[in-house]
Amino acid sequence: MDILRAQERRIDSETLVACSRRTSLRCLGAVSLAFGLGWSPEVLSGAERTTEKPNAMNLNPRLFSFVGGRNGPWKVLESRAVIGEPLSPVERLEVVAGNVAPGSADAAWVLRGATSNDRYVTRSEKDQLLARQPALGRSEADCAVLIPIRKNAKWWSLTTDERRQIFEERSHHNAIGLEYLPAIARRLHHCRDLTEAEPFDFLTWFEFAKSDTAAFDRLLTRLRASEEWNYVDREVEVRLFRGS
Amino acid sequence: MDILRAQERRIDSETLVACSRRTSLRCLGAVSLAFGLGWSPEVLSGAERTTEKPNAMNLNPRLFSFVGGRNGPWKVLESRAVIGEPLSPVERLEVVAGNVAPGSADAAWVLRGATSNDRYVTRSEKDQLLARQPALGRSEADCAVLIPIRKNAKWWSLTTDERRQIFEERSHHNAIGLEYLPAIARRLHHCRDLTEAEPFDFLTWFEFAKSDTAAFDRLLTRLRASEEWNYVDREVEVRLFRGS
């Protein structure tokens, strides 16, 4: 249930500015707000935001930080570059709901992204995904994989219909993913439109039981063989296990 | 050419953290980088970002801040709520390429957004738009209008195909906009996936000559009458004129 506990922590960005000048990531827990398990991007998307003066407490409620370093519930089993540059090697990973300053002393790297509305899914695909996808934090899901991905300028210069054609009609991204539900839980985070320039466009996060590892490997192989992956210019795979 | 000058200013976010504790927005100019006129979102989208440690200088290169207060080249002629809450009244507006801290003493409000890849445009529509749309900063375009918009949770829970159906097939958003080119220059900024929770989902920015005001008014009336606007739950219209 580590992920769920992480989701309960909300981080004050002013605290984090201060934190980044200290030596420990631990102070991040100084400010916390309840973060309900029933949360979904849609629920938080609208009416709550009524002020035009965002303040230190006013973070994007869909923001998550993936903190690579010496702490956190997830032990890094392997970290390798699939395409382009690797990430610095780290021992452990923590997933924090909120914003962690990249300069935090205990973090070798921090990757941030926000869950958002779907981009390339049709109603029929979405309904199937919603019906079959499991929640994160299942007790049996002791394996996780973080795969940060960047797509190239050519991808982003395409229009939505062209991207959808490649993503689904020719690469079957949704259809392939659907085959591995409910074994593989996933959450997609978007980085490209954050306030900061992030090194990746997406952070993909997967959770599954150890016994489903071969199925997960097969899923990865099929997606990486697709036309869509011609547009990926950086990809790192970080394999994790919950525990010490 | 005020907008173009504003685009030449790149802001160091650490400077801005310091700024927010002082009394003047003027210090924002302390750090500036060249910002080429030939810039487009696609050009900056990929290969430049190679580090996994974003630092203070590492802002989203597509980020703009709209600063309402007592300074800036744009005089506010009128600011009114079209749907939902108004913005605080201000005298002037400055458009800054980069991140301005909302707490800046001279600013009554700061709205931020980033230009991004197109969401609901087909290749044929995009090609027509690119062929006809003028650049910002034309010397004859002495009128500008900032229209921040928020869409409701229902909109964001729709899938892309459903949103596209409403946006274009039933509301003709692109087709209507195309009729007013090249008179009306525009730039769209996305706020929904920034690191902070912003009060609006989009900041739309228009520039045109005073003699095209009636055409612009007609454009607004037609878009606001469309089905798409059923999903708008906050909209403010800020009319601006360049000069004193």
Q: Key terms for this structure?
A:
disordered N terminus; 244 residues; homodimer; 26% strand; alpha+beta; eight-stranded antiparallel beta sheet; 7 helices
Secondary structure topology:
2 copies of one chain form a homodimer.
Chain A: H1 2-7, H2 13-19, E1 63-69, E2 74-83, E3 92-97, E4 107-114, H3 123-132, E5 143-151, H4 153-157, H5 160-170, H6 173-179, E6 185-190, E7 202-208, H7 213-224, E8 232-242
Antiparallel strand pairs in A: 1-3, 1-4, 2-3, 2-8, 5-7, 5-8, 6-7
Would you kindly provide a written description of the structure presented here, covering whatever features stand out?
The structure is a homodimer of 244-residue chains. By secondary structure, chain A is of the alpha+beta class. Chain A is 24% helix and 26% strand. Chain A is built from seven helices and eight strands, in the order H-H-E-E-E-E-H-E-H-H-H-E-E-H-E. An eight-stranded antiparallel sheet of chain A has the order 4-1-3-2-8-5-7-6. In chain A, a hairpin with an 8-residue loop joins strand 2 and strand 3 (92-97). The two termini of chain A are 15 Å apart. At the A-B interface, strand 4, helix 3, helix 4 and helix 5 of A face strand 4, helix 3, helix 4 and helix 5 of B.
What fraction of residues of chain A sit in β-strands?
25-35%
Relative helix content of chain A: 10-25%
The N- to C-terminal Cα distance of chain A equals: 15 Å
Interface with most residues: A-B, 64 and 64 residues
Which strand order do you get reading across the main beta sheet of chain A? 4-1-3-2-8-5-7-6
